[in-house]
Amino acid sequence: MRGAWLVLKKELLELSKDRKTVFFTFALPLILYPLIFGVMGKMAMRDNAQRKSKPSKVCITDPGSALTPFLQADPKKFQIVPTPEGNLTKALRDKVVDLAIDVPATANEDLKAQKTLTVTATQNSAEDDSELALKRLKDLLKDKDKTWVDARLKALNASPDLATPSRVEVKNAADLALELGKGLGIWIPYILLIGMFTGVMNHGASMTAGERERGTLMSLLSTRIPRPQIAAGKLLALFVLGLVSALANVVGTAIGFNTLAGDIAKASAASGTQGSASILQMASPATLGLTLLLLIPVAMMMVAFILAVGIRARTQREAGTALMPGMFVIILLGVFSMAPGIEKMAVVPYLPIINASVAIREMFGQQFNAVHYALAFGINSLLAIGLTAMAAKTLNREDVLFKS
After folding, report:
1. Cα–Cα dist 164/309, whole Å
2. Which CATH architecture has domain 54-163?
3. Pairing, β 78-80 against β 56-61
4. CB 170 within 8 A of CB 352
5. What phi, psi does 58 have (nearest 5°)?
6. What does the pLDDT look like over 188-200, one tens digit per residue?
7. Which H or E run contains 238?
């Protein structure tokens, strides 16, 4: 295998001279993931804080002033603005108002007669500000409902507990970290797959069709190194590149999650809660190690595909074009793995690459499934071995190597 090691050394030396490939394969993931997670986390928390810190703009039609005083009494949550002229729907879409409230003229009489007060609220469900305004209105009416019900029961000399035969106390097992982490965990497999494929695609095209175009492939074949060892060396070199690319992506993910955990810890400390433990648990060394292990057979499959396609191309540009469908397939599989409820489909653990994406998604969502993980690793490993053998066979074919 001395020849294979020589070819491996040659390919890695050539890679070290390609600064662009080195940057996109090794450095970019270490910059990209902390930037994505840090920026997304900060933006989500900042947007949520800004939305809650400002009052909702509401316009109200309330002839009997049954509800208006209660809105005016809470200026931190409600800002009453004039009813816009023209199309109310357009005003909601243009964010002139967040919510339009219509209170019947008989509201006060209905309350005195112990009838149900029906309030009509018009919102724009596509806007978070409008959703928040509706929630605030419902919370306000819920509080007032208790006051009105207590008054009615008091008038009947009845116990206030008469209106509440049961009560549910809700404890949320998820904190801000868990919610953000699980949301980001859906994207992690998608980003990892694309990062790995792009990390090895360009150099794979260069060491196959690129060498043929430069004329160095014929020089390599004319050496005393056996052809099977040349094929093995190229496969090993690109596999090392894919493995390091996967490692860089996983390390970048770890840095990104720790950056996000720091931001959450600061926000949680300000509110007096603990919020960073969950997200640090998602990016624990065990999770990251299992993720890297699961990506190894996926990297082998990518390497085998890239070499098999690249060696058949006449030029490096032609190889790049031929490999683009592979990128689209990776994107398609990544998007499919993000679909809600996909982990519940019985066939998913048996689908190559998709099963790895779902298994990674489950791990980062703190829902590790050992059976799904074992199936993903086993199936992808068997497929990777088969594809690698096919790629090695293709690299040994004279009609392919001496293609002009």
Report:
1. 70
2. 3-Layer(aba) Sandwich (3.40)
3. parallel
4. no
5. -125, 140
6. 787 778 877 877 8
7. helix 227-271
pLDDT at 376: 92
Record the tokens describing residue 351, joined without a space.
């689908």
> What residue has token string 């004319």?
222
Q: How far apart are CA 53 and CA 75, in angstroms?
A: 11
pLDDT in tens, 105-148: 888 888 888 888 889 999 888 788 888 889 999 988 888 888 88
| Average pLDDT of span 360-368 | 79
Specify the pLDDT at position 270.
58
Verdict on whether the full-model pTM lies above 0.70: no
Tokens of 254: 């770890």
Task: State residue 57 phi and psi, 5-degree precision.
Answer: -85, 115
The 10s digit of each residue's pLDDT in 67-87 is 899 889 888 899 999 988 888
Q: What is the pLDDT averaged over residues 246-269?
A: 70
For residue 398, give Cα distances in angstroms to 1, 264, 272, 392: 21, 59, 70, 12
Cα dihedral across residues 268, 272, 278, 283: positive or negative: positive
Which tokens is 399 given?
């009609």
Distance CA 188, CA 183 (A): 9
173: buried, middle or exposed (CB in 10 Å: 19+, 13-18, 0-12)?
exposed
Residue extents of the structural domains in the chain? 2-47+175-401, 54-163
Give the C-alpha separation, 353 to 294, whole Å. Answer: 10
Contacts of 177 (CB under 8 A, 6+ apart): 261, 264, 268, 275, 276, 277, 278, 279, 280
Cα separation of the two ends of the chain: 29
How many angstroms from the chain centroid is the CA of residue 208?
34
